[in-house]
Amino acid sequence: xxxxxxxxxxxxxxVMLGVMIGGSLVTxxxxxxxxxxxxxxxxxKWVPEYTLESLIEYMHRFVTGIAGIVVxxxxxxxxxxxxxxxxxxxxxxxxxxxxxxxxxxxxSAVIWPQSSGVLALHFxxxxxxxTGVFLLSLFVLQRDKREKWVQMPVSKGFRxxxxxxxxxxxxxxxxxxxxxHTGSSMGCSDWPLCQGRLIPDLVGQTGIHFAHRAAAAVLxxxxxxxxxxxxxxxxxxxxxxYVASILAFVLTALxxxxxxxxxxxxxxxxxxxxHSLVITCLFGVISYMCVQSLKQPHTSTVRH
Length: 304
Hints:
By secondary structure, the chain is mainly alpha-helical. Residues 300-304 have low confidence and may be disordered. The radius of gyration is 20 Å and the shape is flat. Helix content is 74%, strand content 0%.
């Protein structure tokens, strides 16, 4: 059972990652209405006529449906296997809830036209669904390493800090999705400057784009602070937070650079998808730090 559960954990995470990338592909190629205003049908058919837009949109729906089934099975199996474990129960409910919610929001966006702000929520809810599955998968995969990695509690100050950083990171992600849905991705046509200036006129699409850049720069500093603290205090007795903090910093730097590539390559498809991939992984890692900051060492470990 343990072996199958670990395999399913990896599959569920990869499928959810496919949902995230597929959603970004739909947005980038403007294929959201590739099936018209029909859902779950595509232009009134179960098997749509072949056009690039309809194929992309329909495949995204298909992958999301498969993801829902896989995540549902994985969540139920994990809940039953770790019966009575509140962390497993909460993560299972969290992941299933948000994958259902993002599916409903995606369907409503097709049937009824939505504002850019509401459309940006779709990516945000998808990210939360991925994060729930990702964290549950890490619990299953790392269950036997907890006693070795968690040998000291985390201070209340750091715990509050990393939770605050995570909430802020979610805001940065939402703002990035808002940039795309308002067509502001080229609001700054150069990088690292914006319209040839350090601080441009903050109006229209330029203002929206620059706000996202500024928010990402602040996130970089916040994650840097978390890494410095973790390197100083967690290297020996909190291997989980030590490694995660370094990975989060690397991903934050990569996220900023990938955002620059999106501009420099003028919204090239691969650059855009890579940017979405990095921010998805980054938010998952920071969320992992949140969950791990709540964990206490076993009594036997403390005595040792």
